[in-house]
Amino acid sequence: MSLELKVMAELKEAMKAKDDAALRGLRAIKAEIIKAKTEPGAGGEISEEGELKLLQKIVKQRKDSLEIFRQQNREDLAIKEAEEIAIIEKFLPKQLTEAELKETIAPIIAQVGANSLADLGKVMGIASKQLAGKADGKAISAVVKELLSSAK
Fold first, then answer.
1. Residue ranges of the chain that CATH labels 1.10.10.410
2. Looking at the chain, which residues constitute the CATH 1.10.1510.10 domain(s)?
3. CATH number for region 98-150
4. Which of 1, 32, 117, 149 is the most exposed place for a label (fewest CB within 10 A)?
């Protein structure tokens, strides 16, 4: 079942339940799907990989907004963003923990032969492709930097 069909089914349920938080999150996903499908060259279709990237983008935007709202003591808006993040993350695969990231990235570092922060780009390229959808780019970068700086 495609992401769009899952979202539409959930949207119907949220409407019946009058769940405002779910409606906001699901409508955000639906809007992004429609936008992606109508972009030039998309041909009205989105790949599974494209769906993952789209969801990650939406979650990242919400997390950035959440951080700003908390800095500005706008807890009312922060709560709404947190609710939407929870709804959107249900459609993403389970995110890896820091320990799991280290286990996955260490062999990549060995494979590439990286031994300093100068090799960050090489490792990030491979790690980002392998961990697409399973971890946030910031988290991957932080673990790669930590492992490369301790490899000295």
1. 98-150
2. 3-89
3. 1.10.10.410
4. 1
Exposure string over 89-102, b if 16+ CB within 10 A, otherwise e: bebbeebbeeeebe
Tokens of 26: 């699901």
What is the end-to-end Cα distance of the chain in Å, rounded? 47
CATH of domain 3-89: 1.10.1510.10
> Angle formed by the axes of helices 137-150 and 120-130, to 10°?
140
pLDDT per residue as tens digits for the range 67-76: 999 999 999 9
Rounded to whole angstroms, the Cα distance separating 102 from 104 reads: 5
Tell me the residue type at 10: E
Cα–Cα dist 61/47, whole Å: 21
The burial class, CB within 10 Å (0-12 / 13-18 / 19+), for 25 is: buried
Q: What digits encode the pLDDT tens for the residues 40-73?
A: 877 778 888 888 888 888 998 999 999 999 999 9
DSSP 119: G
- Whole-structure pTM value: 0.73
